[in-house]
Fold these 2 entries.
Entry 1:
Amino acid sequence: MIITIAAIGINNELGKDNQLIWHLPNDFKRFKALTTGHYIIMGRKTFESFPKPLPNRTHVIITRQKNYTVENCIIVDSLEKAIAACPKDEDIFIIGGGEIYKQSIDFADKLEITRVYHSFEADTFFPEIDTKKWELISEEFHSKDEKHDYDFCFQSYVSKQ
């Protein structure tokens, strides 16, 4: 199954200057729980926004740079090649960035979204979730608290196709 996972603001904001624009520890925990042990597909800029490769995951990095190399990562030049590099019988997670999300939203099987209930200044956005194509199957609301500056909700969508 191809699963797109993202945290997005109320206007589909993803980030600014290749960085997240909020800090939600429970979102990080959910991301880790869902993606650990799996292949994760991302663009080069998303990969470079991490201080180091994420542990216990196989990184598949999409870049147009011809001689780009990262130890213990799979490097490809298209989303199609990234998916082909992953096992066919396992869940694959697409983790960003904005352009990779745009390319993948029409053929992903599931969306795992953290919806952050705030408007942010951003330069990167998630594609609109078309409710004709996607069915919301679960939703878990969390109020802001001492560790979370914003209300947020974990949402799971499945493709209606």
Entry 2:
Amino acid sequence: MTTKRDQELLSAAALTAFKLNGQFLELAEHLARPSGLTVAWWQVLGAVINQPLSVSGVAREMGITRQAVQRTADVLVGRGLAEYHDNPAHRRAKLVALTPEGRVAMSAIGPDHANHARELSAVLGADQLADAVAALTKLSEALDALDLSD
């Protein structure tokens, strides 16, 4: 049985997540701008920095639509920051991979990213920051488990 407190907590969690999303987008814009990237470009490049992924794989990893990733990937390829590779697992679904130029753009974010990470850790404390990340991860997993079928 759902209690009023359960509903209040769900609402508070959602509102806090919405605020955090806005705060992280503002920080991401601040970090990405000097390297010539947009937040959307950084998001897609970041998803494939360690290994190429399909557009659908990037969408799942980042929690955004496949169509949005496809549009962004096409722009990144057009600008020479990413390229498409053949996908041995699927003939039609190409893999998105970083180019050397994409790696340079991503590495340009590193120093400011490290400074802000250090500042955040100093404000919260490293253990509390790790606990917050763990709680957010657990919350995300719980939301994934919800039955959202009509």
